Amino acid sequence: MGKITVQRIFLGFLLQLIGLCAADLNRLNIWPMPVSVQYGHQSLYLSKEFVLKTEGTKYADASGILKDGFSRLLDVVEAAHVIELNYSHFDPSLLLQGIHVVILSPNDELQHGVDESYKLLVPMNRKPVYAHLEAQTVYGALHGLQTFSQCCQFNFTSRVIEVRQVPWTIIDQPRFSYRGLLIDTSRHYQPLPMIKRVIDSMVYAKLNVLHWHIVDSQSFPLEIPSYPKIWDGAYSIAERYTMADAAEIVRQVTYSCFSCYAQRRGINVLAEIDVPGHALSWGTGYPSLWPSKDCKEPLDVSNEFTFKVIDGILSDFSKVFKYRFIHLGGDEVNTSCWTTTPHIRNWLKQRGFNESEAYQYFVLRAQDIALSHGYEIVNWEETFNNFGNKLSRKTVVHNWLGGGVAKQVVAAGLRCIVSNQDKWYLDHLDTTWQEFYMNEPLTNITDPKQQKLLIGGEVCMWGEHIDGSDIEQTIWPRAAAAADLSFGLFCHLDVERLWTPYDKLAKDPRQITARLAHFRCLLNQRGVAAAPLAGPGRVAPEEPGSCYMQ
Amino acid sequence: MGKITVQRIFLGFLLQLIGLCAADLNRLNIWPMPVSVQYGHQSLYLSKEFVLKTEGTKYADASGILKDGFSRLLDVVEAAHVIELNYSHFDPSLLLQGIHVVILSPNDELQHGVDESYKLLVPMNRKPVYAHLEAQTVYGALHGLQTFSQCCQFNFTSRVIEVRQVPWTIIDQPRFSYRGLLIDTSRHYQPLPMIKRVIDSMVYAKLNVLHWHIVDSQSFPLEIPSYPKIWDGAYSIAERYTMADAAEIVRQVTYSCFSCYAQRRGINVLAEIDVPGHALSWGTGYPSLWPSKDCKEPLDVSNEFTFKVIDGILSDFSKVFKYRFIHLGGDEVNTSCWTTTPHIRNWLKQRGFNESEAYQYFVLRAQDIALSHGYEIVNWEETFNNFGNKLSRKTVVHNWLGGGVAKQVVAAGLRCIVSNQDKWYLDHLDTTWQEFYMNEPLTNITDPKQQKLLIGGEVCMWGEHIDGSDIEQTIWPRAAAAADLSFGLFCHLDVERLWTPYDKLAKDPRQITARLAHFRCLLNQRGVAAAPLAGPGRVAPEEPGSCYMQ
């Protein structure tokens, strides 16, 4: 029996470090790697009537989140090949009759910090045989179902789904509570079905935050009921999202919502409006938001209407985007339009503001508006770099410029998300999956209290060269490398990472290549266009060969 | 009211040429362009309970092909945005209550030459209002539903699905009965869900033959029950298809088949085994098929076992692949292993064969085997080029080397499929969609009897650099350019193409750019990763911008 064990607090219990990584670890093909895995060498087979059992669970599943998750589990494990239903020659004790899910919390509110832990057992020699999944919340249970799906594979001899390496005992929880992927629907519009496909694929890698960079200078695709002309800034009338579309992506609130796609899959949606820069498209519908017709961004800091619009947007957002955080951008603000436009120059003079103070004024006022709508705030790191001590204490600073700022952010007592562009920007095609994998968010952060302020990381799929044709293969498999680091962790690295200075950590991702290749082939089997590992991002296969070797 | 009319025989009636292309043709965004279109300037809206009516139809739909096609119609038109069900402010006379489908043939056998014509009417001012679709077969009706789906779009004001340009009168049928797309699962394995996605996208462009180049030198992924070791030539145990998987793709016969994917969508599957070259992988399981261990292809012409295996394969195929044709390859045969291997050299000597005669012997014997299993044969053009007058009269010659051979093939009284590599090979990334569009299969073929022997064309997605990550955006949108040519035809070209010598035809595809861009954006909306038009194949968007402009 193989064994991976990592000292980790789980469900309130301190698990003891009972062994180092076993040599046969490479035979495990679960991605991301769970915290603790024990497994054997026997096989069970999914019964024809593989069922979901929920006796003893405290979660009523009125909204069908668990039931639908179970149904998707069956869909993905059965999609790769036709099951030929000839169970007569099976010893009934080898048939797994179902999975028994026990959820301890009746609550299915999805929010930052929700308990995502789970414990999965696949025992032998019970009659009848059921897998057993225990979780605090339904979202932990969804992760457990996802892990279970990765223990399943089609057996070409028996023609049914086999669960290999039984018995399994898997104990798991995320290392970071924020495991994000940014998509950008301003540089290119992404149709709703494409966004749903991205969400599906995030589920497979246990990412849990879709950071939706909705709007930027190039286009404003989203309906804002309070300011109905603002989506005149869309590329075309077709390339728009209604607020009901947004609700469909996120969850049901006041809008009709047929599937509430992300929430039902355990994925929070972090909506962003990037102000005061990156907002040129706002002025198509409301030109007074521009400093002038010749100088169109940043938003006019001197105009009260600017803040009224932000307030209207966040008011509308608060009905749909229920994640605790809203992203207010704040990066790359070139204030020259403010000083070259007479009425703004006068305003600055009256207030006694220089450009930098006006930028601070804008960001802090936008923060106040967000706070008034009940949001905590995420801002890109320039806000911290320029006036970190003025930011609301409810700010999460979003690193992007490079390594290093995270340490300063948490030392200042603020929370931080890591997305350093040299390692975690997916549009940087020359950044390899190995570099994604080796990017350690906690670099040089050793104080456990400060480590807790580092709430996670995010890989960013900026959309300048990304549309519906190339988003999947640019995201995957590199985003998965970050997911492994931020959900589970390859044991060898993990054990050391918790105690060992960063510069002494193992730095060889070769030991996980086969497992990542397996995961990318699994994504292909599930219809996700994940690219080969060999080469830079979005590379085509170099030559004929097996998926597992490319 | 706009008008496109083309003189064309349809449903037994000679339609009169009643007008030239109208200037407002560009406002039509149907792909491929139907034979005849009349449309207006009013709008209807899909009712909340948009239904399928079949009164008066002679087709019982026992297998649910029509019902499922209707259900997919609703899925694709409703996928792009959330319908907000507030019909109260609609004039009931503007609500389209459903589509009334009348199918004249009770038979749903899918086969080469099946009647694919349809007539679609969307009238105004009837109470209650129904669209009307008439077709000879259920497969014509599926095309009609596809066309109808392209007349639908989400209306951002009323928040429901709008049918614009009503009243519609569309009369349509394919120009060619064979409209193919080749996929290659030997150079890279394509998981079942990926093949299904390709089939879905073919439906949108009204392509009707999936040419499945199953096996080649690199790998043999398909189970052959008669020779159970032959899929030892697969890349890995996971990268294989069971015969039940194949049946699932094609249709239900003796194997279990849950969805019989292609047939239910009106798509024939042309299976290929490419002999005697391109068959190295056969010998992994049966090494005696190789001339020797040092010289592994072509298949050993002197070994009776070689033909027994071909017979076994085609016997197994005949239970699953029910298309009239089987593809036997026959291209790029380098016979040097036959002359350098002593036992084959001796055999040639005994028979008095030179290499070329041995190649002919092999191909004709394989043809005889195929004929004995009830198949007609497709062979790559080298067979015709070398011994065309010896080929079975049931041969369809598959052009690939370049233009020109088609004229000779049909002059010799054989049928031909056009895939000249300089224009219709999708793996040639530098071939633009314009070149795909301008490739005329009937070049220099003027005799109407000979024109009929040209049964169609096929675009080829060879798999050396294609796997699950890049197949869709390499196929689309360029394959659509060929589809427009071989199903409907842009009226301006079509009218002329039927009467005018090829060298006098309009050669400017610019007039259809906007319509093709619209179709590629539609594919994106339906979750198909079709690439931008601007640039070579599989190009990423060059810069931020609207889908419709890239």
Automatic annotation (TrEMBL), chains A, B:
Pfam families reported for this sequence: Glyco_hydro_20 (PF00728), Glycohydro_20b2 (PF14845)
The keyword Ligase is assigned to this record: no
CC per GO annotation: membrane
Its EC number(s): 3.2.1.52
All copies of domain Glycoside hydrolase family 20 catalytic, residue ranges: 176-484
Signal peptide: 1-23
Domain of life where this protein originates: Eukaryota
Protein's UniProt name: Beta-hexosaminidase
Lineage of source species: Eukaryota, Viridiplantae, Streptophyta, Embryophyta, Tracheophyta
